[in-house]
Specification:
Length: 231
């Protein structure tokens, strides 16, 4: 079979600093803002008329999985993390070619700095992008399409902030991230097979957000500046 080599046209700068808590599909966290910084040579005329489109397809590389082998059977979170299905019946990152695609909202174009502001992203910081294509509702949205084991969006959990955690968020000057963090945690970012009640920490933007999931929903217990762990 043929092999191909592609160069990235840009790189994503997003508040998702690790794979944990990245939403499992685009659009589930509308408040997730990111920049796509284009590589030299891919701005200018390449962006002509792009502002006429509200949404874009991004073709990207699962760069954090390049060292891992693909699997013919995978465990989608929507099946509880234990039941297996074929990799081509999933959007798993463990693919023969580690490529992904996402529909994102185009918020603005910064022509001077050759970058695109995006919303609703599900891409970890540093993701290489291979191509951009305009989203066409008449061709890309098929209303009566079947969706197998994922016919509807996951149910969002209620999110409750402890008074101290919300105060810490504002004290750190990050109050503008409250909606983003709330939407991320509402997706229940825990591994599908984790059901015990315990505290989790997730690196979002420059913060370490500590939370737990209980019967009443998600409880945000603390927000701290993120400090890298020692190697």
């Amino acid at each position: 079979m043929s092999t191909f080599s592609f160069a990235a046209i840009g790189q994503i700068h997003s508040p998702y600093k690790e794979k944990f808590a990245v939403p499992r599909q685009p659009g589930l966290v509308p408040a997730a803002k990111a920049w796509l910084e284009l590589a030299p040579g891919y701005g200018g005329d390449s962006l002509r008329d792009l502002e006429a489109f509200s949404h874009l397809w991004l073709i990207f590389v699962f760069h954090e999985h390049l060292h891992r082998s693909w699997q013919p059977l995978v465990r989608p979170p929507r099946l509880g993390g234990n039941a297996k299905t074929g990799v081509f019946a999933s959007r798993s990152t463990f693919r023969p070619n580690p490529l992904g695609m996402s529909v994102v909202e185009l918020v603005a174009i910064d022509h001077q700095r050759q970058r695109l502001q995006l919303a609703g992203v599900d891409l970890v910081d540093g993701t290489p992008v291979l191509d951009i294509k305009p989203y066409l509702p008449y061709a890309d949205a098929i209303i009566d399409a079947r969706a197998g084991y994922a016919p509807a969006p996951p149910i969002a959990l209620p999110v409750h902030w402890q008074a101290g955690s919300l105060a810490s968020l504002h004290k750190l000057g990050k109050g503008h991230l409250q909606d983003f963090i709330t939407q991320v945690l509402a997706q229940d970012p825990r591994p599908a097979y984790h059901h015990q009640e315990r505290q989790y920490g997730v690196h979002l933007d420059s913060l370490n957000v500590l939370f737990r999931v209980a019967e009443q929903g998600v409880l945000v217990e603390d927000v701290q500046p993120f400090t890298p762990s020692e190697p």
